Amino acid sequence: MKTQIGITTLALTFALGGCASMTETQKGTAKGAAVGAGAGAVVGAVAGGKKGAVIGAVAGGAVGGVVGNVWSKRLEEQKRQMEEAAAGTGVAVTQTPDNRLKLDIPSDVSFDINRADIKPNFRPILDTFAKGLVENPNATVTVIGHTDSSGSDAINNPLSLNRAASTRDYLVTRGVAFNRIGIDGRGSREPLVANDTAANKAKNRRVEIFVAEPAPQN
Which range has the top average pLDDT, 19-33, 57-71, 95-109? Predict the structure, then answer.
């Protein structure tokens, strides 16, 4: 049992201690892996002592990375709806490794430079998105704003947060409960590409929206 506790502690330390440098997707996967490692170690220890605990932790961690959330039929349907709504706009709609629906919305769709008010061509996408959220009340939403490296952190950090807040507030006007939506602003800290050209800076100015449906707790 001491072995199991040590492995669980190590997994949790990794998952939580690494959060500062992780992307949103990596955080969710790491936390799921930590939980899975702990559970796997318990089962393994019961079945096979210390060796079983190690094997169980490895197996549990691998599974836990994807079972923290459920990829349900509702999320699959919402993904299909968003792919249709966003076709030709440059918005990327994907399923993340930790079973979340992700919308990656570039700046030419979402916000003008140095502005946090939603552009008109962003609204129809959010309208469709909100409809899917209303139909799936168990899902939670995280909106993350990003900027390029132009300007200082004193400008970029609040700007990225304000963009996330504007997205949340729009969804609320479309019937999504305020307390279902978390927001964060990452400023220029998580670029997709180097901020060395105007085109690359435009790629880094973006909003990411994640939808998660947590797995039922037994």
Answer: 95-109
Task: Kindly state the average pLDDT of the residues 20-47.
Answer: 48
Structure-model confidence comparison of residues 58 and 74, the more confident one: 74
**What's the CATH number of domain 73-212, 3.40.50.20, 3.30.1330.60, 1.25.40.10, 3.20.20.70?**
3.30.1330.60
Q: Where are the alpha helices (DSSP H) in the chain?
A: 2-17, 24-67, 73-86, 107-110, 123-134, 153-173, 198-204
Tell me how far CA of residue 11 lies from CA of 38, 47, 69, 77, 217, in angstroms: 7, 20, 18, 34, 20
> Phi and psi dihedrals of 131, rounded to 5?
-60, -45
Burial of 94 (0-12, 13-18, 19+ CB in 10 A): middle
For residues 48 and 67, what is the distance between their CA atoms, to the nearest angstrom? 24
Per the model's pLDDT, the better-predicted residue between 191 and 49 turns out to be: 191
Domain ranges of the chain: 2-67, 73-212
CA distance 155 to 132: 33
List pLDDT tens digits, range 63-97: 444 458 999 999 999 999 999 999 999 999 999 99
Distance CA 199, CA 112 (A): 14
